[in-house]
Design a protein that fits this description.
The structure is a single chain. It is built from 16 helices and twelve strands. By secondary structure, it is of the alpha/beta class. The chain folds into two domains: 122 residues, 2-Layer Sandwich (Nucleotidyltransferase, domain 5); 209 residues, Nucleotidyltransferase, domain 5, CATH 3.30.420.40. The chain has a six-stranded mixed beta sheet with strand order 3-2-1-4-6-5, sandwiched between helices. The radius of gyration is 21 Å and the shape is globular. The protein starts with a strand and ends with a helix.
């Protein structure tokens, strides 16, 4: 069983090919194209590279193509991507304008290119379908809720990977199995006492923090859209609902212009005075005394601590705090800032472990820290492939 996972951006196509034949789990091939203007050609070239490498002789050798789809109206989980589901994705284009339209285009082109191969989407919202309802609701009228105004949560594939891998690394095979089977049995796999509590910190261009109790998410810092939670690279993050109409009236903005500024000029870019949306540039400028750059970092750290604290409180502590994704895996100084002065909560970093850790599995907390602080590189594509395989087998 060979499954191709296609990651489609507004101007990019990246892929990984996995082989699950005879119970093995191996990545056979990966590649990608940037500055894509013609997706049909990019898809042909992708398949051509895989054939040239000798991994398939034709598209018929693929059991499925998996996609890390983001959000759709009234659809979540791991599903076959038919026109009904694509229509549900189109209905939420406004909530994920950078993600849904290119995915819809790419999926339709894949369907045309290989009509006999199942196309399967694992929605980013899937990991939160079992979260407690009070953690996923806004205080809005029922009519708003019926229209879809609620917390959905995102980065589900990444946080699910962390749920599984952290449990494996810390000796909780029972919890790892519950997380693995989550989309096939709805979290009914039994686990032992005591509770296993993880706060998963996916920090990158878009960041989110999730509380995970016994392998199942209890909530996510991203809400109805990726335009929420922590300040992201150029998306605003959490914002008072009154701020948008106030800014429109006060600054003379149109709704479209206000939305554009919040999506393109907010977040780290906005906080740094337009300097950059890249944390590396901002840290460099802060080190040279740029006050706005320093403020951007401080706001990011404060927001991360806020969300970690909320899930820490909700779960009555944590067995592990896990950092993942580009910033979480590679920026030791930000991990240190987020975990600073928390010794009374049982959180204590070891500087000698933290500082050299880059994109590798490691425990970076002190030996006497009650809470394990860990770095675990995420693997969203592998999760998509695994879930596509489980759906086919089911």
């Amino acid at each position: 069983m060979k499954i191709l996972v296609a990651n489609i951006g507004s101007t990019s196509l990246k892929w990984r090919l996995y082989d699950f034949t005879n119970g093995q789990e191996a990545m056979l091939h990966k590649g990608g194209f940037e500055r894509v203007t013609e997706y049909s050609k990019a898809i042909d070239d992708c398949l051509g590279q895989i054939k040239e490498a000798g991994h398939i002789s034709s598209e018929k050798d693929l059991a499925a193509v998996g996609f890390k789809t983001v959000i759709a109206k009234d659809v979540t989980g791991c599903v076959r991507l038919d026109e009904r589901v694509l229509g549900a994705m189109e209905a939420y284009n406004g909530l994920a304008p950078a993600h849904n339209p290119p995915y819809i285009t790419g999926i339709r082109l894949f369907s045309k290119r290989m009509p006999g191969v199942p196309l399967i989407g694992l929605f980013e919202t899937a990991f939160y379908q079992f979260a407690p309802e009070p953690m996923m609701r806004y205080g809005v009228p029922d009519s708003w809720l019926e229209a879809g105004v609620r917390r959905w949560g995102f980065h589900g594939a990444s946080h699910k990977f962390i749920a599984e891998r952290s449990a494996e690394l810390l000796g909780r095979k029972d919890v790892a199995q519950r997380a693995q089977r989550l989309y096939t049995d709805g979290g009914k796999t039994a686990v032992q006492n005591p509770d296993f509590r993880v706060v998963s910190c996916h920090l990158g261009g878009t960041s989110s923090i999730t509380g995970i109790l016994n392998g199942v998410a209890i909530g996510n810092s991203l809400g109805m859209s990726p335009q929420s939670g922590l300040p992201n690279n150029n998306r605003v993050g959490d914002l008072d609902s009154a701020a948008v109409p106030y800014a429109i009236r006060s600054l003379g903005l149109t709704l479209d212009e206000a939305e554009r500024q919040l999506c393109k000029e907010g977040g780290l870019k906005g906080l740094s005075g337009g300097l950059s949306n890249d944390i590396r540039d901002i840290q460099e400028a802060a080190g040279k005394g740029n006050a706005k750059a320093k403020l951007a970092i401080d706001v990011f750290v404060a927001s991360a601590r806020h969300w970690i604290g909320s899930y820490f409180f909700e779960m009555n502590g944590a067995d592990a705090i896990v950092f993942t994704a580009g910033i979480g895996e590679n920026r030791a100084e930000l991990r240190a800032a987020i975990c600073a002065n928390l010794e009374q909560l049982g959180i204590k970093l070891d500087e000698a472990k933290n500082n050299p850790t880059r994109a590798q599995e490691a425990v970076i907390s002190a030996d006497d820290s009650r809470v394990k602080v860990m770095v675990i590189p995420t693997n969203e594509e592998l999760v998509v492939a695994r879930e596509a395989k489980r759906l086919l087998e089911k």
